[in-house]
Amino acid sequence: MARAFDWQSKGDEFDSRMLHFSKKTSFKSFKLLIMNIEDVIVSQNTKDLHLVASQFCTFIEKIQPFQQQDAMEYLIKIIPLLYIKGILIPHFEFDEEENMAIRLLTEEEYEIAYLSIKEKFDTYNYFEFFNQSINQVESIDLSELIADLYQDLKDFVLFFNQNTFRSQSAALWLCRVNFYERWGKIITQLLAYLHPLLFPSQVNDY
Questions:
Q1: Dist CA 159 CA 102 (whole Å)
Q2: Which long-range contacts (CB under 8 A, 24 or more apart) does 17-23 make?
């Protein structure tokens, strides 16, 4: 676990690789650097993302022995790391025709994970969340959110573990797309719900 949480020392990767500024230091001169896919695959951020995603998936698959409080505390510690590693996946050239948008996690495996999560968090499973895009409050299924996050990350891990250039390229590309379309948003919803549950009082109480 210590290896997965040691992301802070590698924060300069974002500055040195993701962003490029021209000599005139202004926001108008900001450009996104399109990285070479080979460099992305072997980058430290990709290694960290794969490690943390694997640990998250293993936790979900073995969630039953955990006490509810311990499981919540683990989640609130690991999902911010997933968000950081997801948003640091750089833009890279990829032929979308090569995009193998398939699910490696089966429906049965998803259902097993969902039911295990729901059993663990049953007393806190449903909550309301204000959706700014539609300007209304929605009823959210906590277990479904976590299971959906698990599904996206498990697909990434399984795809990446095929250990071919094509599979790892597609795994990273899909992971980046899914981050902006789905699992990054899921993490923000989870944090907004879990934080006040775990830390309802003043900071001096912890």
A1: 10
A2: 17/43, 17/90, 18/88, 18/90
CA 36 remoteness from chain centre: 22
What is the distance between the alpha carbons of residues 60 and 117, in angstroms, rounded to a whole number? 7
Distance, CA of 154 to CA of 30 (rounded, Å): 34
H or E element at residue 128 = strand 126-131
Token reading at 46: 């990709």
- Tell me the CA distances in angstroms from 35 to 55, 89, 164, one per residue in order: 27, 10, 19
- The answer to whether the beta carbons of residues 167 and 155 sit under 8 Å apart is no
Note the pLDDT tens digit of each residue in 129-186: 666 666 666 778 899 999 999 999 999 999 999 999 999 999 999 999 999 999 999 9
Which tokens in the block code for residue 149?
């996050």
Nearest to 19 by CA among 34, 37, 3, 39: 34
The rounded distance, in Å, linking the Cα atoms of 61 and 66 is 11
| φ, ψ dihedrals at 63, nearest 5° | -75, -25
Q: How many residues does the chain have?
A: 206
Give the type of residue at 81.
L
